[in-house]
Amino acid sequence: VIKKTRFPHWDEVLEFELAEGDLGEAVLSMEVWDWDIVGKNDFLGRVEFPLDTICTEPTKGWFQLLPFPSAAENHGGQLGALRLAVRLVEDRVLPHSYYQPLIQLLTEPILCPGQPPAGTALAILEEVTSGESRQDVATKLVKIFLGQGLAVPLLDYLTTRELARTTDPNTLFRSNSLASKSVEQFMKVVGLPYLHEVLKPVVNRIFEEKKYVELDPGKMELSRSRRISFKGSLSEARVRESSLELLKGYLGDIVDAIVGSVEKCPLLMRVAFRQLRRRVEERFPSAQHEEVRYFSISGFLFLRFFAPAVLTPKLFSLREQHADPRTGRTLLLLAK
């Protein structure tokens, strides 16, 4: 439900699973309703897609809303339009034995480390994947190697290769390489329950309180900000002071929750990061690079795990809906 607007923007991704053989004459129907507190909701229009018409390529664009139940009547566009992207994806999953040669090829450099590193399947895969497909490849690799009990050795293999290519420790793991994406996906798969336990109480409180927080003078809405006193609009200084106090409170609770969660951190994550620290120490052993061993881990744990979850809780299943603009601004400032 998007309130107080005639031009709602949902920004939702919905997935529906179809069993084999269900395609046939199936129709995907998207309906728009006006939500009412009292009485029945009002039907505003619908868009229908016979699934057999979108088998070949995605359907995307603005679609005129049609009256219920027939699309035959023409209301001259009076019902408005809905912008959608619809895609049908078919996955064929074979019995496990069919994938064994591929799994053997991928795990070979891990199980038999004596091979020339440049000629392995993983090394070639790393070279040929583009920026767009790298995240998808990393997700599949992590799941395959988790299934084989080899996720930590996979990350060690990929991060060691990246360490060997890195000359400036300040740029370590900053790119969206296969190694960085694999560690990121590994944390999402292994650490999501842990992330929820740590962040959910604070994130829920931020959504419920809906406090006005703004530090940028150019973006302050002094007349709309929640008043602390009864003396009219707040001054810029008061808004900033109030915002800083709120941000420090939220951030303090987040940091305390993270620091106090050491024992709850999944064992696989702890083992993987311990190995990563050891590899970084071997690659940059000098005293001037002593802090790199910590930056390499915090770069993953904070920049690719905790901070993105604070910024967009819905993508990490911390919330069912995206944040409203006010709450979203608070989350953005916290993440920064």
From TrEMBL:
The answer on whether this UniProt entry bears the keyword Amino-acid biosynthesis reads no
Keyword Disulfide bond found:
no
> What keywords appear on the UniProt entry?
GTPase activation
Q: Which PROSITE patterns match?
A: C2 (PS50004), RAS_GTPASE_ACTIV_1 (PS00509), RAS_GTPASE_ACTIV_2 (PS50018)
C2 domain segment(s): 1-63
Please give the InterPro entries that the UniProt record associates with this protein.
Answer: C2_dom (IPR000008), C2_domain_sf (IPR035892), Ras_GTPase (IPR039360), RasGAP_CS (IPR023152), RasGAP_dom (IPR001936), Rho_GTPase_activation_prot (IPR008936)
All copies of the Ras-GAP domain together span: 133-336
Q: Which residues form the signal peptide?
A: none
Q: Single GO molecular-function term? A: GTPase activator activity
Top-rank taxon, per record: Eukaryota
> SUPFAM superfamilies of this UniProt entry?
C2 domain (Calcium/lipid-binding domain, CaLB), GTPase activation domain, GAP
For this protein, the record's PANTHER family field holds: RAS GTPASE-ACTIVATING PROTEINS (PTHR10194), RASGAP-ACTIVATING-LIKE PROTEIN 1 (PTHR10194:SF3)
Q: What protein name does the entry list? A: RASL1 protein
